Structure formats: structure tokens, C-alpha cells
Amino acid sequence: MHLTISGITVVDVIFPRVPRLPVWPRHTEFTADNLVLVPEAPVITLGGNGANAAYVAARCGARVTLSTQLGRDAFGDLARGWLDAAGCRVVTVGRAAATAVNVTAANVRHERATLFYPGRASGLLLRPALARREALLVCGWPHPPLPALARRFREVARAGGLTALDTGPILERPWTLVEMQPLWPHLRLLLTNEYELRAVARTQNLPAALRKVRAVYAGELIVKRGADGVLRLPAGSVEPQMLPATRVKIVNTVGAGDAFNGALLAALCRGQPMGRALTIANRVAASVVASPLGVLGVKAGRMQ
Asked: Where does 2-7+49-98+119-299 sit in CATH, by number?
């Protein structure tokens, strides 16, 4: 099954082991307060929810088309080169003057502070429907408008395809479950993390959030919980299942959730059952966590 992913492409510049963040002075000179010396060179790697998932899915053997926005600049050339090398077909939508860029400072506890230039943040467009059966994953900010997203999911579902949505990241007011109602009949797989699930369900209680989602959505729900593993609420079930995370030494957490998405969709496109696909996705995400290179450090041996 062909996999189409709609999402943002970003070039990540990550400064690891930053001891502290600089402060704003009342002058324009370099001082000990506003200039921070870091012990390691920055890592420049692929980022963005769509590009990360597409890169990993292609590395996992899926036939992938990424619908995204890339500027005709050095960062855009860099990102396209990584995606091309993975075997991912890139289709650009709109005209982005410059490619999106993240500059992230991470301390030894993997807490992050980020400066984000989103490029042309006007809402990612969806490619026209394909004649063939396909899987479609929509992820990353900004999501397409809900009416357009519902129409596209309906087209894919009616053709017997697989529809998947990741709710994050939440950078503006999150959708409500009522607002998402047009999606529910056509959505097979909902991907989220605990923070995002609580946000869309409008509750801080995880069991209550699961109940509220299940009351309106009958499909598969996957909640990514980082080092605590994955919570799965199978389609039609009210009994959650917990899958433990693959244990590795944490080097980097940027891109792990996106890598999970890409590996999961690739496995499902190969016909793997959901339980096996989740195991593979956990392993791939762990290989990202254990690498300083983000998704570019995905280990091929984790994909089967």
C-alpha cells in the first residue's frame, strides 16, 4: 500500500548539553550573561513532523510521498537531499519563501527551549486523491482545515485505504472532540501523546480523557508516553493495553514520536497486525532516542 504523509519539513539545529539559557541584557554587547559557551558542536538534522515520519517510513521500506512545503534555499536543499536519499518522493505545495527551521537548546536532562521559524505557516495542503488504494497520515502544525481534512479522509476510507491523524504539536487552541466530529466516521487511527489527548478531551485525567474520546470515536487510539511506553485503545474496545518502551540510553528525544509514526505506518502498509507494528515502532523510536542525529540515526535493524 502506498503511504502519503502530509506535514511540515524542518531543519533542526540542536545544541546539546547547554548549561543554561542566555538572558536579555540592556545593551548590545557580548557578556558572560548573554553569551553561553556550549561544550559540543550543534547537530544539524532533519526535523518536522511530516518529514521525520516520511524519512523513517521510507527507511522502513514503505513507498512514501511527502506533501510538504520547502523553500528554495540552502536549508530546503539539505532537507530534500536527506529525503531523496531515503527514497521518499517529495511533492511541494504552495510557494515557501524559506524552509522552516528549529534552533533548539537541550540540557543534560533533555529539557528543551526552541526558536522556531515556521516558513509559510498557512496550513498544509492535501494532495488530490489517488486512484490507487493508499494510506494517509496527516501530522504536524499547522493541520489542514477540518472540512478539507474530513473530505480527504472520506475519499481514502471509501477506497479501502488507511487514514491516520496525529494531533500534535499543539501550538494554538486545540481542536475539541465536538469540532473533530466530521473526522470520526472516516478515521481509522488516532495518534497522540498524553498532553495532546488531555488537551483535545479538555480534562487532565487520563482515564477520563480515554472515556471521552471513546464516546465519540470507535477507531484505534494510540497514546505515546515516551519512556513509559505506549497506551493502545483497540478499535471498538474500552480496555486500554500498555506496551513497554524499548530501553536505551537517552541521548536525544527530538523526533522520536515522529519516527514512531513513520515506522508504525510503514509496518501497517506491509500488512503487519497492529500489535507487531507497535513493537516495531517502539524499537525504531528507541533507536532515535539513542542517537544524537535524530531520525537520521534510525537503525535499519530495528525495522523488522
From this structure: 3.40.1190.20
